[in-house]
Amino acid sequence: MRLLRYDRGFSRRKFMADAAKGIFGAGVLMPTWEAIAADGDASKAYPDELLSIEGYTKGRIKTGDYITAANVELVKDLLEPVRYEQILKMGRRLKVVKTTKDIMRLSPWEYLEATLKNAGKAGFDAKGNVVNKADGKPWIGGNPFPNPKTGVELFAAQTLSWGRHDASFYAMKMYSSDVNGGGTVKFNYSGGWAELAPVARVSMNPKPYWPGHDDKLRYQSVFFLKPQNFRGTSFLNIWDYDHSTFPTLYGYVPEFRRIRQFPTDQRFEPLVPGLSLFLSDAWAAGDPLYTWGNYKIVGRGPFLAGLSESWNSGHENWEHTTHGGAQGKLFWDATVELVPEAIIVEAEPVKFPRAPVSKKRVWFDARTQAVIGMVTFDRRGAPYRSFDGAYTLYENGSKKVMDGKHPYWSWAHVTSSDIQTGSVTRLEQVRVLEGKHFSGANDPSIYDKYLTHVALMSLGAA
Questions:
Q1: Which of 1, 239, 336, 416 has the fewest beta carbons closer than 10 A?
Q2: Which CATH superfamily groups domain 156-461?
Q3: What pLDDT score does 23 carry?
Q4: What pLDDT sits at residue 11?
Q5: Where are the beta strands (DSSP E) in 15-112?
Q6: How far apart are CA 66 and CA 63, in angstroms?
């Protein structure tokens, strides 16, 4: 007989006891980032029950199994309420894969190297902006708070660097379905999303700041190529480094053939008709840090999230397969794995008097602080919308997409759902659109091609 040092309830009791004492450092058996710094593996921070789905469910669900309505009750505590509802009542299913233990497969390599190198150097200045404590200048790269103690530290890191690259371009296809219509795809869009960081740069030269732009946090744009009546519609956000300042928002509408400035606080409306996706939703931190408030950690525990095996290397354009609904196109065929610890944070919109949401609840992977789930709640406090995605390392055997010296790491697909109307929006990152818009990271040409007024005009005229 093998005696277990930690029984199945040990982790739950530890999480609850720490919460009661106001202790929020990540890890169960030891601090997570202490284990990661030692050998790049967080496993020593967690008991066996949190390192595999077999251990958590006592073998009732195994690696390779599907989570469906027939067995979802076994893992209800590992899901946010919207995914649980979709599995139980709407035919969604998730394939379980092995838990990833190598931390360097869970974020861009250079971002994690900078996180380890710069640990302990970050702080907040008098205005609440994240700064390098040594000189009070903007942050210098990587996650500023790898061992977070507060909700605002988790959200500050996420807001500083969405995709964890210095620059990213995502060629995207977007589909919106209505459950009440049998899951038929009603809207079909394609377009691109670009983002570039002028500060906290870890891959692109010059580092860590882009001279002349170091008062900015981010340049970000989105544009549409299809359908034809929205071709050329584009938006450009320019973020100030001040965490309490709204971005400047510009848009190009082809029928007017000019760029106009839009109200920047209207961030809870669909970018184009039919999509259940708002600017506020981006990376669960689509608004400046202090336009939300009352950040608080409300829980810790294991979670199911898509962190690996999500790149469809078998399709030349990386397009993903689907299931559910009358046409089999309601949900992505998605993989999930057991995350040993998620930190759950709630926040409230404090600078949006007309916001349709009362709060958002966000799940962060305690090992990397990556967002792995989000649910917003309406003004009555009922679940409203969800945002769940899949990250992956773009490596499958001998097939690799390289980002410099290392395989590309990014998101693969996202499901954005309105649980009250039944609308489901699916987004996927594809390799290329129209033979010229390629997904990738840290390409210096991204700025001139996608992140200026001239770029918006050029995209609108194409």
A1: 1
A2: Lipoprotein localisation LolA/LolB/LppX (2.50.20.10)
A3: 46
A4: 53
A5: 66-67, 94-96
A6: 9
